[in-house]
Amino acid sequence: MCNHRGPSISRRSVLTTAGAVGVAATAGCLGGGGDNSDAPEPIALTGDKQCDRCGMVIEQHPGPVGQVFYRDNAPEGHDNPAWFCSAWETFSYNFARQDEGWTRVVGYLTDYSSVDYDLYDDEGATFITAHLDPEAFGRMDELFYVAGADINGAMGNDLVPFSQESDADAFADEHGGDVYEESDISPDLVARL
Hints:
The protein is of the alpha+beta class. The protein contains 4 helices and 11 strands, in the order H-E-E-H-E-E-E-E-E-E-E-E-H-E-H.
């Protein structure tokens, strides 16, 4: 009987290699195309700013609003950031730009954990108030999103973002929907809203 053995690999070698790969992957994520700590700060979405996806004047509508800064690209007609009158338009636009090779530096959405928001009824639908000042925004990659709640924004049913997971859970318990992190939000989920 022949006994062929390959090169001997120790457990320590495997763990060392795995650790090095993990560090390299993490460094690639931090230095590559994702959000980073040197990112620009959010701006106010007041005045005549029009949504870069639908063209509506942002401050004239309810619900979460967003803005995204890109590296080496900018929206048509103005400098960064691209701005939006709803969370789902922010995601939709960003997915389309990523497909075109754009790199997001940082994205922001209304953080309903950091503002005093109101809900109100209008023609049989319940809406959540908009908040447009810079301090009302949280980083997209640090928020928890309620999708499928019985609450509307500028474009109808929307993702409602919170920086505190407990706030998102409580909102979903009261108004329906499920809680997601940004990495769980897909183009399919956004299209279903």
